[in-house]
Amino acid sequence: MIVLQYIINGILLGGIYAVLGVGMTMIFGIVKLTNLAHGEFVIIGAYASTLIAGALGVDPILTLIVTIPFMFIIGMILQSGLINRVMLKGSEPALLVTFGLSIILQDAMLLLFTADARHAGGAYSSIVFHLGGISIALLDIILLVISLLTILILSWFLNKTYMGRSIRATSDDTQAASLMGVSVKRTYGIAMGIAMATAAVAGLCIALKWTYYPSSGGGYLLTAFGVVVIGGMGSIPGTLVAGLIFGLAQVIGGANYGLLVGYILLIIMLAVRPQGLFSK
Amino acid sequence: MSEPILKVEGVQAKYGDFIAVESATLDVPEGQIVSLIGSNGAGKSTLMDTIAGLHKPSQGKIYFKGEDITGMPAEKIVLKGLSLVPQGSRCFIRMSVEDNLIMGSFPKTARAKAKDTLEKVYDLFPVLKQKRNDPSGSLSGGQRQMVAVGRALMTNPEMILFDEISLGLAPTTIKDIYSRIKDIAASGTTVVLVEQDTHRAIKTAQLVHVMLKGNVVLSGSPKELSEDDIKKAYFGI
Fold first, then answer.
1. pLDDT tens, A146-172?
2. How many domains are there within chain A?
3. Are A230 and A108 spatial neighbours (Cβ–Cβ below 8 Å)?
4. CATH number of the domain to which A102 belongs
5. Is residue A206 part of a domain?
6. Which residue range is the domain that position A206 belongs to?
7. B79 neighbourhood in chain A, CB within 8 Å
8. Which residues of chain B neighbour A157 with C-beta distances below 8 Å?
């Protein structure tokens, strides 16, 4: 029964890790950029949900109506106005820009919100179901559903819409995509917008599940890295499976050794299948 | 001779300091099959990339249907009705055959007719219908070329540039693809063939241009040009 409880806990946690990694894998796969500021974007999403929910007195989940489009627009502006320009000079300068951004955002959040721990509690946070010796928190179920819905909608968008197909085509061959009428720079902007929108969702999940600080982004960046590498860079289904694996690792390793267990799995993966689970 | 749909006037294209196309001038009459031949390194592919908007010219002018398209990016040129099938097919290898073809109808000008055009492409290349759900990366070289041709057709072009379409393919596949190109031209689409196989290119075309060291050095119909003229222009002797 304890093993089953561990597996369920791991799966419930894995959804959050998957949505944490999905934005990063998109930027890896499409823009070919390692976004070192992804962790800070997630924490901005967490602050946005907490503050809006507090100010309006609404359930934090409802704040996604505002935070998703807000983060999408910020992502598009950031990519179009800054990163696209830097990428003309190569991928290394762009990598450094995201590193610089992570520092600036972290310090800005510290200045604006102080170093105090924050948390966005919902009315359902303390509800726990007990089923034959297994305990499942309602919050964890809600977060898993939100995460899975996010990934399903993203997969549908990428596979079934013109814009989604153009994003995948750009990730395969930028020149051939432009011959089909695709503006590569605009596509990069949309991809970054989507990555930021997923960061808003991940931020909400983190704000509901745990406490966070302006400096929490670094830890989540490491988790997102692990998920992306295990799943295969650029693979959305891979990110989901890797998220679940990382979730199980976190449960096995506990609060102190969760990341360590996850990274041991990552090293094994790099030795056995360096391209990741789902990358070809 | 009908009015040229494409006019290239003194186009120069460079990679850094290296001049790949020195000063190319040529006309492509509407509704014809035109071959551009030349040895390796003559500048044919660079000229095609420049016309299609993948490469910016450093000098000269390009007019398509009378409109100046010099330096226009590829994503805008395709909207005008000019499509390029690039060398090596350049399929989106992680996408299915059908998704590759649907990508061809990404330009807003092509979306309304996408369903009908897709059926026409499947009629032209029935094997693609059989393999519609397969990733294009799993196809043979010839089938990938068919995907690339189909994808270009999906853009509803008035003119298609085919860059080295026979490169690396089996003779039977080349014969098959060339017969489809004739069908495409018969439907009213202007075709430009860039080829190293001079014999096939001359046999198929109504007008031939020969490139040498970045310049168009000879132009004429296959009837007007003697084998000796073409050999001299091709090798620069």
1. 999 999 999 999 999 999 999 999 999
2. 1
3. no
4. 1.10.3470
5. yes
6. 2-115+122-272
7. 181
8. none
